[in-house]
Amino acid sequence: MKSVAGKTVLVTGAAMGMGRLFVERAIAERARRVILWDVDEAALAATVAELEAGDHETRLTAYAIDVTDRPTVEATATEILGDAGPVDVLVNNAGIVRGNRYFWESDPARDTEATIAVNTLAPMHIARAFLPAMIEHSSEARLVNIASAAGLTPNPRMATYAASKWAVIGWSDSVRLELKQAGFDHVKVTTVCPYYVNTGMFDGAKSAPLLPILEPAEVVDESWKGMLDGEAFVVLPRTVMLNEALKGLLPVSVRDFIADRVIGVYHTMDDFTGRR
């Protein structure tokens, strides 16, 4: 895919942060239509108003929607498909993070269930609602799932978040293989696994000697390139892959020592506050 010019793009968590940057990138490439989903109705309205004031011909459509509400997701998807036709690029960007407490100290509803609902189940339900039309009607389509480096590297004080992203990675890459196996090569899946991103969601989280805090524009830029090229994974920074290599080469105790003392990841959530 050379660009999204003339295509329909849907972005979840689109009111701010990386979601808004994905929307702006689609507009810059002259997408025919961009559909914005976000649970924050006020922020979504403000974002759309600002973007519509720009000099472009892209049609913007906003939906204030809770992505964990599956009946609403399915009904809204049916409405969009009837009105706009198939979505060519779907960016599953919406997510939440809970941290700075050990798992046994966490709240089952606020922390565990909410995290799994938003980060794991929601992208599955959203993709399921739009994939059949992407398969049948789009000549070239993309599914982008924003996971996390936490889905590749275990980390204290964020067990549920890590679990939610591990699940997304396994699901996302399996769907990629299913599409390939079924002969639907025109639909590509890209799984994005960044380290902490400076959007406010990870306020208080620390960088590490080999793991700098990432800027949203950098992550969106690399994700967009990977999406257009149909890459299976975008992992940022590349240092994250070092731990993946260590998993298969070293005993767990040695791997833990390197991750903790050399890469420096095991205490990065000690002072986490998150977006207030």
From TrEMBL:
Which molecular function term from Gene Ontology is one that the record holds?
oxidoreductase activity, acting on the CH-OH group of donors, NAD or NADP as acceptor
Instruction: Cite the SUPFAM superfamilies for this sequence.
Output: NAD(P)-binding Rossmann-fold domains (SSF51735)
**What are the record keywords, sorted?**
Oxidoreductase
In terms of PROSITE patterns, this protein maps to:
ADH_SHORT
In terms of domain of life, where is this protein from?
Answer: Bacteria
Give the matching Pfam families: adh_short
Q: What family classification does the UniProt entry report for this protein?
A: Belongs to the short-chain dehydrogenases/reductases (SDR) family.
Query: What name does the UniProt record give this protein?
Result: Putative short chain dehydrogenase
Q: Which organism is it from?
A: Phycicoccus elongatus Lp2
